[in-house]
Design brief:
mainly alpha, amino acid transmembrane transporter activity, Lysine transporter LysE, globular, transmembrane, membrane, single chain, cell membrane
Length: 213
């Protein structure tokens, strides 16, 4: 369903993109550092889930329609920034006693999963990335439609991204184990995550959304 002659170039481009630090990497890394590997894994799965949704939207052409509407992109950007600010505020208000032990907290992992999904879907740059990146590797040398090729390419991108993020979680989660045993850090871990959400909000609200027109 894809042109295998362009696969080496595509994989090289994907690997290069994965190695560039971005909002997703910051959220996953900080989640793993603050709350441990389990929460980091759920944040990675949330990121992968949003990636699959964006892949489907791109393959069906919905993303392109949204990306060509500056007002829709601006609404997404504002909503995304507002959501991240709310998450930051909620974290800042959370007291250590309000959250169960991180190693045994399924609710905390589920919360980070949901936040990763929503924050990525509300990021117009993520949507535009799929609109601009995947079509570059659609080939006329195969019988599959452009939508089918973009679906396969997007799935491959998401699988590689998930594997990379899980590796990142394993490394950072291991480094963060001593922090999780530190009482002072445990007292301020929610504030640390709140600060990360504020940084992501400023990052999104201050950024310029590229035009695809």
């Amino acid at each position: 369903m894809i042109d295998f002659s362009i696969l080496p170039v595509y994989l090289t481009a994907v690997i290069a993109l994965l190695l560039i630090p971005g909002p997703d990497m910051l959220l996953i890394a900080s989640s793993s550092l603050s709350y441990g590997k389990k929460v980091g894994v759920f944040a990675s799965l949330g990121n992968a889930t949003s990636g699959l949704i964006l892949t489907l939207l791109a393959a069906m052409g919905v993303s392109a329609l949204i990306a060509m509407n500056p007002f829709a992109l601006e609404v997404l950007r504002v909503l995304g920034g507002a959501y991240l600010l709310k998450m930051g505020w909620d974290c800042m208000r959370t007291q250590p006693a309000d959250t169960p032990e991180v190693q045994n907290s399924q609710s905390l992992a589920t919360t980070l999963y949901r936040r990763a999904v929503i924050s990525n879907l509300l990021n117009p740059k993520a949507l535009i990335f799929f609109v601009l990146f995947l079509p570059q590797f659609v080939s006329s040398q195969v019988t599959a439609s452009s939508g089918e090729q973009m679906l396969v390419l997007g799935l491959l991108l998401n699988v590689l991204g998930l594997l990379f993020n899980l590796f990142l979680v394993t490394m950072i989660g291991s480094l963060g184990q001593p922090l999780l045993k530190n009482e002072k850090f445990r007292t301020n871990q929610h504030k640390f995550m709140g600060l990360i959400f504020f940084v992501l909000a400023i990052w999104l609200l201050a950024s310029q959304v590229p035009s695809v027109n």
